[in-house]
């Protein structure tokens, strides 16, 4: 199994694992700060919210080990024994660890301060069954009892049950709090198009369903201001609900042909570099060899109408590549980025203030991931190549990651300061530092 490196939540170190070893580096210099040796192969690592502790989960052995950066000699070991372990995470206060046992029989809450243990029974095995409010005060847990779905809301400072209520779902698929912590969204399996919105005390505020029989919801995203809830569907549309009436305010289509002249289409093009024959030398230098055999990539603005590559899904296979599977709001609430799986090489960027399509990025390869800068409207995109693509309202840029070999970027993680980001491939990672302009 592959463990992804993690940047600390605070502007502090970075952690990665190699088999049994946990390596903690300085995020600015990549200098090694600490080395820890675990009992078995690490399958999951996670920082505490204050970056003082880091947990390493070894699911195969049902063990979690916790290390302290302030006191390198201190460590903690949690053994779930015969109950097994399938998931482990921190609570928002960074002093409690939530372990989910095999077959989702229970969630065990371990306290590092008092060494006390609490149990939460019947957690549901779904995509997103545990959700914390942004301020860390409350936790919602999806549950399954007697063939029926429930949600329990707990107070995180003492783990007391605040509310417990059943949901009007056939097969609850996920839950997510609004950033302001006032509304909890719960959505049904893809076979049933239904989004339910609950208040903190368990009251059903609203229920939304766009249609009945085809496949339904594929992805969901709250805006940072909690004013909008974007719902990506299998019918290749995004529907945006408002926070006042919880009614739909607009549908955003993803057609294969862009016709509006107000939409800017950036197309990635690849060109082989021209080399001056007078500069050739044998054997060629490494820099010259890299320039000879590598291709350069850049963006060009396409003239509308533009036809995008459209893939017709195979209907008789499970998990068809159809519908809006990725969507995310920018940190300033001004833009929404989406990806329609039928058009795998394009990123759609919508202007939330005007509710219009602003930009389309047409890439040469399939979009693997994208993520917004946490401090400004700047989107980073990767396509499984050795390049990272950056968009902002000022324009687009292609950044070639220097290095030997084939570094295929499959995932991106921004630093909380927005000054750097982690680029991950299957076996390697690197940190990309972005320079700020002097004012």
TrEMBL record:
Query: Which InterPro entries does the record associate with it?
Result: Centrosome-WD_assoc, WD40/YVTN_repeat-like_dom_sf, WD40_rpt
- SUPFAM superfamilies recorded: Tricorn protease domain 2
GO cellular component terms attached to this protein's record: microtubule organizing center; MWP complex
Q: Pfam families given for it?
A: WD40 (PF00400)
Q: Where does the source fall among the domains of life?
A: Eukaryota
PANTHER family reported for this sequence = WD REPEAT PROTEIN 8-RELATED, WD REPEAT-CONTAINING PROTEIN WRAP73
Q: What is this protein called?
A: WRP73 protein
């Amino acid at each position: 199994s592959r463990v992804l490196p993690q940047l600390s939540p605070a502007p502090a170190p970075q952690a990665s694992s190699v088999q049994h070893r946990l390596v903690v580096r300085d995020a600015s210099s990549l200098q090694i700060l600490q080395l820890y040796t675990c009992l078995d192969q690490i399958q999951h690592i996670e920082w505490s919210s204050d970056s003082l502790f880091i947990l390493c989960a070894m699911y195969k052995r049902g063990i979690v080990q916790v290390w302290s950066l302030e006191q390198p000699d201190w460590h903690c070991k949690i053994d779930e024994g015969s109950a097994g372990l399938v998931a482990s995470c921190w609570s928002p206060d960074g002093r409690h660890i939530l372990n989910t046992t095999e077959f989702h029989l229970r969630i065990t809450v371990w306290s590092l301060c008092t060494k006390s243990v609490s149990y939460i029974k019947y957690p549901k095995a779904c995509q997103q069954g545990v959700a914390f409010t942004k301020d860390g005060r409350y936790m919602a847990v999806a549950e399954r009892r007697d063939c029926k779905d429930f949600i329990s809301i707990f107070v995180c400072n003492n783990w007391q049950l605040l509310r417990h209520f059943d949901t009007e779902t056939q097969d609850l698929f996920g839950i997510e709090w609004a950033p302001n912590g006032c509304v909890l969204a719960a959505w049904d399996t893809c076979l049933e198009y239904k989004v339910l919105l609950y208040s903190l005390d368990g009251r059903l505020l609203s229920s939304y369903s766009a249609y009945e029989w085809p496949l339904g919801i594929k992805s969901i995203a709250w805006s940072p201001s909690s004013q909008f809830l974007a719902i990506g569907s299998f019918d290749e549309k995004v529907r945006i609900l408002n926070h006042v009436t919880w009614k739909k305010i607009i549908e955003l289509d993803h057609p294969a042909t862009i016709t509006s002249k107000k939409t800017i289409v950036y197309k990635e093009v690849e060109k082989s570099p021209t080399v001056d024959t007078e500069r050739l030398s044998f054997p060629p230098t490494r820099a010259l060899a890299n320039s000879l055999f590598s291709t350069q990539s850049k963006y060009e603005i396409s003239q509308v109408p533009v036809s995008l590559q459209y893939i017709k899904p195979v209907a008789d296979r499970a998990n068809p590549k159809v519908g809006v599977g990725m969507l995310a709001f920018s940190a300033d609430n001004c833009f929404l980025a989406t990806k329609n799986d039928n058009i795998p090489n394009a990123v759609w960027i919508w202007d939330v203030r005007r509710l219009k399509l602003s930009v389309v990025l047409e890439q040469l390869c399939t979009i693997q991931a994208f993520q917004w800068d946490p401090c400004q409207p700047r989107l980073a995109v990767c396509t499984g190549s050795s390049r990272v693509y950056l968009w902002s309202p000022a324009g687009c840029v292609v950044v070639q990651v220097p290095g030997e070999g084939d570094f295929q970027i499959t995932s991106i993680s921004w630093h909380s300061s927005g000054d750097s980001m982690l680029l991950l491939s299957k076996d390697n990672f690197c940190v990309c530092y972005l320079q700020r302009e002097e004012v």
